[in-house]
């Protein structure tokens, strides 16, 4: 899928992205953007470092990426927030589809308390895209990398709890989580030699329980 890739530097990552887009003669929905370095402002100009980005032009934008980009742009326009949308991956093996990251001065408004606003926005996005394409829309919407940080936190927690289960021999139920977060827990524990995970409960109360594999 990848055709051409360039790296650019500028004072900010947004400036570096815009430079790359102009060189590639493309818009954000037709490229993958990798932030190599956020850059540093420095003090009085000392110790400053430019931001660096790697932008890859895609040969063709698939229907899921195209429709998701259009719907997401429309939703954010209606919300009247000052943000930009970056296509991080066109086809993530973990997600089973594209990964988008929203950045900008109003990004915090899109995350909400404990990520509830972001979850609702992703649910709405997937529903609309799924209806338009008449199929299940596998995609991930992130805001300033919040979701990825959350997933890493869950992975670390799952490993700590698994060690506790191993040492105590007692099963440990985790707090109720949405499907995507339960999946992260299951993946984190999948390779553990002594602990397994299983889901229990219904609806919003569904949770993951970690227990010894030989229980």
Q: What are the salient characteristics of this protein?
A:
215 residues; alpha+beta; three-stranded mixed β-sheet; 27% strand
Please give a structural write-up.
The structure is a single chain. With 215 residues, the chain is an alpha+beta fold. The chain is 40% helix and 27% strand. It has helices at 13-24, 63-79, 107-111, 116-133, 146-168, 179-189, and strands at 2-10, 31-37, 51-58, 84-92, 97-103, 140-143, 172-173, 195-200, 207-212. The strands form 3 sheets. It has a 3-stranded antiparallel beta sheet with strand order 1-3-2, covered by helices on one side. Strands 4-5-6 form a 3-stranded mixed beta sheet, sandwiched between helices. A 3-stranded antiparallel beta sheet has the order 7-9-8. Strand 8 and strand 9 form a beta hairpin. Helix 5 crosses helix 6.
Alpha plus pi helix count: 6
Main beta sheet strand tally, sense and closure: 3 strands, antiparallel
| Shape designation | globular
Summed over residues and divided by their number, the pLDDT gives a mean of: 88
Would you summarize the structure shown here?
This protein is α+β, with helices and mostly antiparallel strands.
Write the layout of secondary structure elements.
Elements: E1 2-10, H1 13-24, E2 31-37, E3 51-58, H2 63-79, E4 84-92, E5 97-103, H3 107-111, H4 116-133, E6 140-143, H5 146-168, E7 172-173, H6 179-189, E8 195-200, E9 207-212
Parallel strand pairs: 5-6
Antiparallel strand pairs: 1-3, 2-3, 4-5, 7-9, 8-9
Helix pairs in contact: 2-4, 5-6
């Amino acid at each position: 899928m990848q055709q051409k890739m360039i790296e650019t530097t500028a004072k900010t990552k947004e400036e570096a992205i815009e430079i790359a887009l102009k060189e590639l003669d493309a818009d954000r929905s037709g490229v993958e953007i990798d932030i190599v370095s956020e850059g540093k402002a420095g003090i009085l100009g000392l110790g400053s470092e430019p931001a660096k980005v790697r932008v890859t032009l895609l040969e063709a934008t698939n229907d899921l990426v195209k429709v998701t980009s259009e719907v997401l742009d429309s939703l954010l326009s209606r919300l009247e927030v000052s943000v930009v949308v970056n296509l991080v991956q066109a086809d993530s093996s973990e997600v089973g589809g594209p990964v988008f990251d929203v950045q900008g001065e109003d990004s915090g408004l899109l995350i909400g308390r404990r990520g509830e606003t972001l979850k609702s926005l992703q649910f709405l996005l997937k529903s609309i895209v799924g209806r338009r394409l008449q199929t299940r829309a596998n995609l991930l919407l992130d805001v300033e990398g919040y979701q990825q940080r959350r997933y890493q936190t869950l992975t670390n927690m799952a490993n700590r709890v698994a060690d506790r289960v191993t040492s105590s021999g007692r099963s440990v139920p985790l707090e109720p989580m949405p499907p995507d977060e339960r999946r992260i827990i299951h993946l984190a524990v999948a390779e553990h030699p002594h602990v397994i995970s299983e889901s229990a409960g219904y609806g919003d109360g569904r949770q993951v329980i970690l227990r010894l594999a030989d229980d």
